[in-house]
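Re: weekly structure request thread

Next one in the queue (258 aa):
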Amino acid sequence: MPLKILIEKVPFLEYLTRLALYLWDPDIKNTPIERNPLRFAPADVFLSFGFIVAVTTFLALFKNNFAYLQVASAVNVEPLLLSYVLYAVGFSLGFPLLALSLAQLKDRKSFNALKNSYYLLVLHCMRFFAVIVLVSYASFIHAAGLLFNDGISLIAHSSVHPLGYWFVCILMAFLLFRLFLNPVSRYIRLVRRPFMEKAIWLGLFVVVLKLNAFWPVFDYGAVLNEQRCRELLPKTALMARIPKEKAGEAEERICNPD
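Done, posted below.
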């Protein structure tokens, strides 16, 4: 009982507990929704965005300075949040629709069965998105921090420190298969060969991401806080490497790309 109260009352602890249970058991359950762990997926989508503040703090402490927090402060949260929600909604509605369309070609199901499967798959996609956004945002802030604080791009940094780059790639691949593709392939059986089935779901995953690119999301100029960028940029290592006569042009191109 005390542990349950602690989990419910401490901010983000209940959310982190659900993520831990999701990592342990990511399968899609057919249990009634009132007992199904997927019922928290919509709330977790929004909680994940709030939790990125803690992720940013961790990055700042890891670098032993607060420069990463300054980089994060140059981002307009509202358009970034709206873009993130649009991507989450687009992917969560699109993937189940295409997945069940493929499943219908193999095995015809009733409308009620399809409706229940679609609902569970939508929640599964949202729960997966709530995890991926944490890794994606951390990578984004890290890349921006490298550029502003150290004056180097993420690609240049990965060539000097390839282990960190490959670690992130392996982590993303692990999360994709562990949390998303494997549960979907166990929930919907298309072919007998597991390798071919995962290849089909991976291809469908890529297709939905490509289609998701047509959502009307905000561009770089809307996400970046121009005033905060102009305050931050002169203090960075990036501007120290740029000749003074070109500093104004560089600032204008970075902080006001329109």
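Residues 40-255 form one domain. The CA atoms of residues 239 and 247 lie 7 Å apart.
Next request, please.
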